[in-house]
Amino acid sequence: MDGDLTLVFKALADPTRRALLDRLRERNGQTLGELCGELAMARQSVSQHLAVLEAANLVSTAWRGREKVHHLNVVPLHEVQERWIDRFETPRLRVLSAVRRAAEEPEMTDQPTFVYVTYIAATPERVWQALTDADLTATYWGHRNESDWQPGSTWQHVRTDGSGTADVVGTVVESVPPERLVLTFPGSDEQRSGTPSTVTFTIERDRELVRLTVQHRDLPTAADTAAVSTGWPAVLANLKSLLETGRVLPQAPWEFAAEPRTGQLADHD
């Protein structure tokens, strides 16, 4: 038993692994790609952390069709609680925990996150190219996404009207072709003065399709969240049409959507 608990303590010692357990506690039965979408980390690194959690019996896996899903196993944690925690004064510990949470709450933030998933009849490589090729983005987005796409590099969302104006200038946080791209996405004026939001593109093969997940995090206001919730679906609808038919939609889909405030998610001059 002590050997098993050694693996448990080793697994719990890493903050990333604890974060993965938190994700599964919030929503059990997630795929590797879904778990990666919550962390600014390469798919291979997350897979290695999950292997440690599996070895400690804190995570179990099962196949759902062709997808491997991960489930939280609380039995080892219960054994730790029975052996050590229950021997302390549980009511006193609960009071201390409540006091600590109350003291931390004023510093906590609850900034909105927008998540959008679409399925595209293409390869992961083609989807990656559509996100990073300046000419392709100009075709379906009305802006050129320009960068060398290396971590730490600048990327620009440049108008195609010949003015050379960049409506968004951000940083490439992570670049793992053709699986994952993470960018800072400064948008509205009030956001530029603080911490920029972050956009994560996760590209996963799903049988004959590609599952593209876009997660826009740390949006400063509910209005920004509402804006990107119309902007991203419009842009991705045009991307999907271009990759599947070779043509963009006959009418720009963002013409039906409200004007976005956080970044220029559509072709607006």
UniProtKB/TrEMBL annotation:
Which InterPro entries does the UniProt entry name for this protein? ArsR-like_HTH, ASHA1/2-like_C, HTH_ArsR_DNA-bd_dom, START-like_dom_sf, WH-like_DNA-bd_sf, WH_DNA-bd_sf
Q: Name one GO molecular function term.
A: DNA-binding transcription factor activity
- HTH arsR-type domain location is 1-92
Note one Pfam family from the annotation. AHSA1
Report the SUPFAM superfamilies cross-referenced here: Bet v1-like, Winged helix' DNA-binding domain
* NCBIfam families the record matches: HTH_metalloreg
Family recorded in the similarity comment:
Belongs to the AHA1 family.
Descriptive protein name: Transcriptional regulator, ArsR family
Organism whose genome encodes this protein: Modestobacter italicus (strain DSM 44449 / CECT 9708 / BC 501)
Give the lineage.
Bacteria, Bacillati, Actinomycetota, Actinomycetes, Geodermatophilales
